[in-house]
């Protein structure tokens, strides 16, 4: 029979691949290739693939059977499995793994506590560690528990770490390097389904320091106290970097599906996830941190070497910020803090963001931005398109001269609440829906070659577009413009002698009703009893209402002129109205006053209430009396009101509930020598009987009153 040697060769090759995989599956829960999102080239090709591979049990009594001077001895061969059990406390259990092996704990009770304490913050102290060296490439580590222990992977490749726990607390472990550190030109490392907790001064949790093609997946990272970064791709304290660290070295790594908790009190140099390197991916992570959630490696005043990072589907809570690396793509993220771009061609799209700070060479498109978009002085080449922006687009920083102007800005197809920019050149604002204003009125006073076209701008202010000093070659055309009292071309303010072209803008003042906010300021009453009412009326966007009038009511009764009976109005001027009136004795203690702005033009009605600080006099301050009176109907009588301590007071008199006017036609009479007389004609219609007389005396902001009776009798009975 003829043997097909090609078939034999294929079968042998399959056995070489399958048998190591079987050994790896005995490591107590190591993830499969699919679970860790890796590929076949991440499997170890050096683990033994024959029946001589063995599994040994390692505890603190058998440790020296397999480790000599902290290294694996000849009792362990490549491809063997070490099943750890129990406690390994102290630096005598340092472990240098220099062969491709499987290390796991089948019982899950292992505790490796090496007390890897250091004093240096640069990672250069000698201490007890758990280290995988280059010769350990192809190893699998799973189900281990580390406490205050330094874990290193140095210059290794094709290693899987699964379901481990590493905790550092109240102990200086990992300073300058990270408590679990994959470094020194390592590659194809998977860290999955593991937990890292750190609580020590600026110690980072999970670090890549010169590592490529690594995957960090489904890990839980918890930073507390004053610890450092959660997941950190860095070049600090790494020796032998190519080109002296002038090129990115942490490249093509994937950070996916992790949950990171930052420290409780955010620090400026403590980050949840920090990235150095090129072509890295940060996908579907969840961050809880009030500081920098996803950002670039800190480099002081230099330029970060974070290039072309893809940031997709992450959720950043607790006001967490995101800094976009150079040339990055940021899409489908939720960012509860501020998103900041860096100069270098970033694209930011389809995100929900609280606020955006835009730098040079940025495309911001199809985002839901809840707050403002900020653009600092001297930025250029920025495209802001097709976003929904809950706040405004406005400039920040100092605009002193022409060089500070923003250049080459495109704002197109957005929904915005306004645009305010201090200096702008060579820019287009096109086809936006703006519920506010466009304002060019900056201190730089330089606006050159700008087109404002095909926008719909509806303003609750006096103008829809405001062109201040310094506008040169500014064109405003074919927009729909509506302001409070004007529309179209008339809704544009132009400073004198500017170079601007205004044409073909439509619209009228018949804008949709504008909600208003009336605010009655604190009511003041002086020693003479004069009440001062002061009101501010604005739109809900805090723009002054320009016209209209306000009426007032006290205890539900509208204020009227005492002589004419007409309602008293206060006219609006620049969002304010005021009125002075005399306190009235008939008021109760602390009467309620309401100011009502009446609907006018496009403005809707609104009101506000307050209290007049007015109270009754006590008996010790003044005394008032009014005599009983007997008279027939139709007669004219004198009703005498007198008392004590009534200097500078006013008296109002009511008979049968109706006000009695003075001979001068006023509703009150001034007291002279503690006495005042009202002449009263008893109506013919009053039948015989007893009727109430009430005298009320007011002085300053308080009052006192007394009662008597009017007896209406027949003529012959007097």
Question: What fold name stands as the CATH topology of the largest domain?
Answer: Pectate Lyase C-like
Put simply, the count of helices is: 2
The computed structural class is mainly beta
- CATH architecture assignment of the largest domain: 3 Solenoid
Helix content: under 10%
Low-confidence stretches: 1-46
Per DSSP E runs of 2 or more residues, the count of β-strands stands at 73
Instruction: Give the averaged pLDDT, no decimals.
Output: 86
Domains, number: 4
| CATH class placement of the largest domain | Mainly Beta
Strand content: over 45%
Distance between the termini: 155 Å
Radius of gyration computed on alpha carbons: 42 Å
Largest β-sheet summary: 44 strands, parallel
Shape annotation: elongated
Task: Report what the structure shows.
With 718 residues, the protein is mainly β. The strands form 9 sheets. The chain has a 44-stranded parallel β-sheet that branches. Strands 64, 66, 68, 69, 70, 72 and 73 form a 7-stranded mixed β-sheet that branches. β68 and β69 (658-660) form a beta hairpin.
């Amino acid at each position: 029979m003829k043997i097909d040697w090609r078939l034999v060769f294929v079968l042998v090759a399959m056995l070489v691949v399958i048998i190591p995989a079987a050994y790896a599956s005995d490591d107590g829960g190591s993830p499969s290739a699919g679970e860790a999102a890796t590929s076949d080239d991440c499997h170890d090709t050096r683990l033994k693939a024959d029946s001589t591979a063995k599994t040994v049990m390692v505890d603190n009594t058998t440790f020296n059977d397999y480790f000599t001077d902290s290294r694996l001895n000849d009792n362990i061969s490549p491809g063997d499995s070490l099943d750890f059990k129990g406690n390994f406390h102290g630096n005598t259990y340092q472990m240098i793994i220099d062969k491709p092996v499987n290390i796991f704990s089948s019982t899950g009770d292992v505790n490796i506590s090496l007390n890897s304490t250091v004093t240096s913050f640069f990672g250069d102290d000698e201490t007890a560690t758990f280290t995988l060296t280059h010769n350990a490439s192809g190893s699998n580590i799973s189900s281990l528990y580390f406490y205050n222990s330094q874990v290193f992977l140095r210059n290794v490749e094709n290693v899987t770490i699964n379901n481990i726990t590493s905790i550092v607390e109240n102990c200086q472990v990992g300073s300058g390097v990270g408590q679990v550190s994959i470094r020194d030109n390592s590659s194809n490392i998977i860290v999955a389904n593991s937990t890292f907790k750190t609580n020590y001064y600026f110690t980072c949790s999970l670090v890549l320091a010169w590592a490529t093609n690594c995957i960090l997946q489904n890990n839980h990272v918890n930073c507390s106290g004053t610890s450092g970064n959660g997941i950190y791709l860095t070049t600090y304290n790494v020796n032998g970097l190519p080109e002296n660290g002038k090129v990115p070295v942490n490249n093509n790594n994937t950070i996916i599906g992790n949950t990171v908790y930052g420290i409780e009190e955010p620090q400026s140099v403590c980050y949840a996830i920090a990235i150095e390197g090129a072509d890295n991916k940060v996908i579907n992570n969840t961050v809880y941190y009030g500081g920098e959630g996803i950002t670039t490696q800190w480099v002081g005043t230099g330029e970060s070497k974070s290039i072309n990072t893809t940031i997709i589907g992450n959720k950043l809570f607790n006001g967490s910020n995101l800094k976009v690396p150079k040339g990055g793509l940021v899409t489908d993220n939720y960012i509860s803090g501020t998103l900041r771009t860096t100069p270098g061609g970033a694209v930011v799209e389809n995100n929900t963001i609280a606020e955006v700070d835009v730098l040079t060479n940025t495309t911001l498109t199809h985002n839901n931005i809840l707050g403002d978009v900020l653009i600092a002085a001297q930025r250029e080449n920025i495209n802001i398109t097709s976003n929904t922006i809950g706040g405004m687009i406005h400039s920040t920083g100092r605009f002193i001269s022409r060089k500070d102007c923003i250049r080459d800005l495109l704002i197109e197809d957005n929904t915005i609440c306004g645009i305010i920019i201090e200096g702008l050149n060579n820019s287009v604002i096109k086809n936006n829906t703006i519920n506010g204003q466009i304002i060019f009125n900056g201190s730089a006073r330089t606006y050159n070659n700008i087109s404002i076209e095909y926008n719909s701008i509806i303003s609750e202010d006096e103008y829809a577009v405001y062109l201040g000093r310094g506008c040169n070659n500014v064109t405003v055309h074919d927009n729909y413009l509506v302001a409070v009292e004007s529309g179209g071309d008339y809704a544009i303010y132009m400073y004198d002698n500017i170079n601007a072209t205004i044409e073909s803008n439509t619209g009228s003042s018949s804008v949709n009703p504008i909600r208003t906010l009336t605010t009655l300021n604190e009511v003041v009453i002086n020693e003479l009893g004069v009440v001062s009412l002061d009101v501010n009326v604005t739109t809900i966007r805090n723009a002054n209402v320009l016209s209209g009038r306000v009426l007032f009511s006290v205890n539900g009764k509208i204020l009227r002129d005492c002589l004419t009976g007409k309602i008293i109005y206060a006219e609006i001027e620049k969002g304010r109205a005021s009125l002075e009136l005399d306190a009235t004795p008939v008021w109760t203690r602390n009467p309620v006053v309401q100011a009502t702005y009446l609907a006018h033009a496009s403005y809707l009605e609104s009101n506000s209430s307050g209290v007049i600080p007015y109270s009754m006099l006590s008996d010790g301050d003044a005394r008032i009396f009014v005599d009983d009176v007997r008279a027939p109907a139709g007669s004219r009588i004198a009703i005498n009101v007198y008392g004590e301590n009534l200097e500078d007071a006013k008296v109002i008199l009511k008979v049968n509930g109706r006000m009695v006017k003075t001979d001068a036609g006023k509703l009150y009479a001034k007291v002279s020598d503690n006495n005042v007389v009202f002449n009263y004609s008893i109506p013919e219609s009053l039948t015989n009987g007893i009727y109430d007389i009430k005298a009320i005396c007011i002085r300053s902001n308080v009052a006192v009153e007394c009662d008597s009776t009017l007896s209406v009798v027949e003529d012959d009975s007097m």
